[in-house]
Design a protein that fits this description.
single chain; alpha/beta; Rossmann fold; six-stranded mixed β-sheet; 8 helices; about 30% helix; binds adenosine-5'-diphosphate; binds magnesium ion
Length: about 260
Amino acid sequence: MSTQGTGDVVVIKDLVKTFNKGKVQAVKGISFSVPRGQRLVLMGLSGSGKSTTLRMLNALNTPTSGTVEVLGQEPAKLKGKDLRHFRRRVAFIFQHFNLVGRLSAIENVLSGALGAVRGPRYGLMAYPDEMRQEAMAHLERVGLAEKAFQRANTLSGGQQQRVGIARALMQKPDLVLADEPVASLDPESSMQVMTLLKELTEEENLTVVCSLHQVELAIGWADRMIGLRGGQIVLDQDARSLSPEEASVIYTSVDPELQ
Ligand code: ADP
Ligand code: MG
């Protein structure tokens, strides 16, 4: 599945992102690398810079200074065909699922493969048979084969996010980014979705960068945790040896000296 060799999938150096002409400092000079196959959680309270960081990994935001390298390329420098090709290799799982509500679950999954198909595709039958079978197989893996032809907006939140995961897998990504994938879900669905995301990315040996604000969900799920507070890294540790007390550093109020 991967076209890359070994080595780091993500390399971030001295990354800074400001908004409103520098008035808002969302990310204040962070550096870290993500080796292939690692499941990394970016943990932090609301406003700590998680989404801004993730969005720079997929060229949805451009750095103010510093560098971001993903799969050997600088996303901010890509345009047109190169950018489309890059985005095909990087799957994004959203907090609010971002499904097309009026389309069926399977059509949403198939849209993950759209980039690989030339020309517009309208309706299920416009896709080649083998692609439909592949999409169905992904829906089976997320436990939703029986909902394949149901409109996405009639599914529960947890089911919609499972479709989101199937769509990401359909992309055959080299990197999976997930921005608070369970923030809109109840605790039970959150657990189900996180477990599924762990199992499937483990099976495919995928590199994952996932933002979360709940420490208890991250412990036991991640290989490594990076804690952000006020746009800075306050923790970077093997997640298996991390205690909830250590992780609570992210909740400490931001030191005004650091602002
Ligand atoms: P998180 O995802 O951890 O909640 P964000 O990365 O969304 O944090 O936000 C970090 C900071 O940057 C916040 O203060 C937020 O208000 C600010 N911010 C994010 N995006 C923008 C934007 N487009 N314009 C202005 N400020 C922004
Ligand atoms: Mg966010």
